[in-house]
């Protein structure tokens, strides 16, 4: 249940961290041809591997999954309403408002009519009083009420759930989950954040419905001061798949923002029924998620038994001691794409303990292929070492990051203005330089030197007849070599 690692294998077709899908592409996008080529290649590979009916079904599923991953969404959700996705410049020219809700930044954005108000919060949203020194793992919110095979979680019943927001140019999206473990500290999967700079990450706490503001209490958003990726993390095997994010400012704990408890070092939870939560997909390969936080109960499995299940269906991945499996032999319930880094928790005696983080899996909810999680009890000392180093630091490290994403919205608006100003300047300049456009078109059509004009009434000279003649040739940063632009004369002063 955010970026996907895909490995094309003849039998199953996918293994990877459970981040959300890659930014999708419209059928008219240049990369859509790549999708078709890859799908065709995948089909060929599967046919050569086995002609069986099950292989054919896997082929269709893999092909459909690949196309879903490489297709831009055509619809978006804003304030509980559905709107079309399209080119941001086209939306702007229609007098509408482009919003980054289609995984394509301002280039491919959600087109909202201007008459729709930009309400940052619902009229029903209130602000609760801060809770001083709350007990970890305790639920304080008691008012009123995908993961594959799961159901909607209740607002405020997973107050440690965090959403990891990645920012890139004009684009920002929630790609992973995490868990609040103490003030200013979030734990998540290493594969979610190890390639992303800390200043491109933000953490959202207290959120529930990503598509509409239906919550009774407002969520809060924080910048990331630094990230700590486990030194032994191996992206090839997902060993030590754990990372810490230090927030840029202190958190005000509230009813819906409470840290989760950590387990005892080396504690074993085999046989227990745990709960996985997240905003990821409710079915493998689809391009959208439900938007509302999901939960599912899964059984913590013995690692040796889990390894046997995987080998029985031809898988060769290893379950290392710092990993744990959770799920069922018949499948049906599991975490999925977009859930990476989200917590696997266990509630005992009124307190909830973090026992795992969503790490990787083969597909989602398949028989004999349970989800694999980072075993938190193997990293308790590592967490304590890194999080205790800043416990006594003061707010001198606090940045100008504000809760509720106010500064981020100002920055986003500035980038939108900058984008359209730049596009307008480029368009006006290209129109004014008609001679350059003409020469480019001639060069592209003939694939030769774009110069075709001659001196009027003259004739061709002989090689070496005018040795002082100079040709000034133009190179454009986008068009490449344009060719001869104008002449010059080589002079020598006596």
Structural description of this entry:
With 494 residues, the chain is of the alpha+beta class. The chain has three domains: 16-116, no CATH class; 151-401, Trypsin-like serine proteases (Thrombin, subunit H); 451-489, no CATH class. Helix content is 21%, strand content 27%. It contains eight helices and 20 strands. The chain has helices at residues 32-49, 53-69, 88-93, 190-193, 303-312, 380-388, 406-432, 434-446, and strands at residues 16-17, 75-78, 81-87, 97-104, 108-112, 151-152, 161-168, 171-182, 185-188, 201-205, 220-229, 243-247, 273-278, 294-301, 323-327, 343-348, 351-361, 371-375, 469-476, 480-489. Strands 13-14-15-18-17-16 form a six-stranded antiparallel β-barrel. It has a six-stranded antiparallel β-barrel with strand order 7-8-9-12-11-10. Strands 2-3-5-4 form a four-stranded antiparallel beta sheet. Mean pLDDT is 74; it is low at 2-14, 21-54, 66-70, 120-124, 394-406 and 439-454. Its main location: secreted. It is found in: Secreted. Residues 147-388 form the Peptidase S1 domain.
Can you tag this structure with a few keywords?
disordered N terminus, 6-stranded antiparallel β-barrel, Thrombin, subunit H, elongated, alpha+beta, 494 residues, 8 helices, 20 strands
């Amino acid at each position: 249940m955010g970026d996907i690692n895909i490995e094309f294998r003849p039998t199953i077709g996918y293994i990877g961290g459970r981040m959300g899908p890659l930014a999708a592409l419209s059928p008219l996008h240049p990369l859509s041809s790549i999708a078709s080529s890859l799908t065709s290649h995948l089909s060929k590979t599967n046919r050569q591997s086995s002609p069986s009916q099950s292989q054919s079904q896997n082929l269709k599923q893999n092909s459909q999954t690949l196309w879903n991953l490489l297709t831009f969404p055509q619809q978006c959700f804003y304030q509980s309403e559905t709107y079309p996705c399209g080119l941001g410049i086209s939306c702007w020219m229609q007098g509408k408002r482009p919003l980054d809700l289609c995984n394509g930044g301002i280039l491919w954005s959600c087109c909202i009519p201007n008459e729709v108000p930009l309400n940052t919060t619902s009229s029903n949203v209130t602000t609760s009083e801060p809770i001083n020194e709350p007990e970890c793992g305790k639920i304080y919110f008691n008012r009123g009420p995908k993961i594959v095979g799961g159901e909607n979680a209740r607002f405020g019943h997973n107050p440690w759930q965090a959403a990891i927001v990645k920012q890139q140019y004009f684009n920002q999206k929630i790609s992973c989950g995490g868990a609040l473990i103490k003030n200013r500290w979030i734990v998540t999967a290493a594969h979610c954040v190890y390639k992303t700079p800390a200043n491109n990450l933000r953490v959202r706490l207290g959120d529930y419905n990503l598509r509409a503001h239906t919550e009774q209490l407002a969520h809060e958003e924080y910048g990331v001061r630094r990230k700590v990726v486990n030194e032994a993390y191996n992206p090839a095997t997902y060993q030590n798949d754990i990372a810490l994010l230090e927030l840029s400012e202190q958190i005000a704990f509230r009813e819906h923002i409470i840290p989760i408890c950590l387990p005892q070092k080396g504690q074993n939870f085999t046989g227990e029924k745990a709960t996985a939560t997240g905003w990821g997909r409710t079915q493998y390969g689809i391009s959208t998620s439900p938007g509302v936080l999901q939960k599912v109960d899964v059984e913590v499995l013995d690692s040796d038994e889990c390894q046997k299940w995987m080998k029985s269906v031809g898988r060769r991945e290893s379950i290392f001691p710092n990993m744990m499996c959770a799920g069922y032999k018949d499948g049906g319930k599991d975490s999925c794409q977009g859930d990476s880094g989200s917590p696997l928790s266990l509630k005992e005696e009124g307190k909830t303990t973090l026992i795992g983080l969503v790490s990787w899996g083969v597909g989602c909810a398949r028989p004999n292929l349970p989800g694999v999680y980072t075993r938190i009890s193997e990293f308790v000392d590592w967490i304590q070492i890194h999080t205790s180093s800043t416990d006594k630091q003061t707010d001198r490290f606090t940045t100008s990051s504000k809760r509720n994403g106010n500064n981020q919205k100002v920055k986003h608006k500035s980038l939108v203005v900058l984008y359209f100003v730049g596009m307008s300047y480029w368009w006006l300049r290209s129109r004014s330089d008609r001679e350059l456009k003409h020469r480019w078109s001639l060069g592209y059509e003939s694939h030769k030197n774009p110069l075709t004009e001659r001196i009027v009434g003259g004739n061709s000279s002989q090689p070496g007849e005018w040795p002082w003649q100079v040709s000034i040739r133009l190179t454009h940063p986008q068009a490449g070599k344009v060719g001869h632009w104008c002449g010059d004369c080589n002079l020598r002063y006596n």
